[in-house]
Amino acid sequence: MNSEQQIRQARYRIHRADAMVGEAAQLDAIAAQLMAMQRQWNAPDREARLAAVLATSRAVWHGIQIALAEGALAFPLEVRQNLLILSVYADSKIGACELAPSADTLGSLIALTHTLAGSLKEWREAA
């Protein structure tokens, strides 16, 4: 491999790692917002705050789907497929929270979001 190919490969790894960091940071932020919502479940403005945080969560998960479709998250095929499945599952959890809001339903969305953020960070370190 010549030096130009090595440089291209290094840039590719950096770009891939940067994309993972961005998605992981967004998921961490969403998980934190969801946890705050869960802790303040009985607040008088819960409905409006819940709607806002769920909309933001949906936007981040849809962003992951778009990044996968555009190839911005350059993972192996199996990982991309699993991420797509998780994003669809997360969307269903968001819908469940909207239809029948409860702190327990929110808890499963928090766990999923937090877990994926951690996994993306691990992938970044391995990249």
Textual characterization of the structure:
The protein is mainly alpha-helical and 127 residues long. It is built from four helices and no strands. It has helices spanning 3-39, 46-70, 77-99, 103-126. α1 (3-39) runs antiparallel to α2 (46-70), α1 (3-39) runs antiparallel to α4 (103-126) and α2 packs antiparallel against α3. Mean pLDDT is 81; it is low at 6-18.
Keywords:
127 residues; 0% strand
Layout of secondary structure:
Elements: H1 3-39, H2 46-70, H3 77-99, H4 103-126
Helix pairs in contact: 1-2, 1-4, 2-3, 3-4
Structural class: mainly alpha
In terms of DSSP E residues, the strand content is under 5%
Strand segment tally: 0
Oligomer: single chain
Q: Characterize the largest beta sheet: strand count, sense, and whether it forms a barrel.
A: none
Note poorly predicted spans. Answer: 6-18
Order of helices and strands: HHHH
Kindly report the average pLDDT value.
81
Q: Provide the helix percentage.
A: over 70%
Shape: elongated
Q: Mind telling me the C-alpha Rg?
A: 17 Å
- The first-to-last residue Cα distance is 19 Å
The number of helical runs is: 4
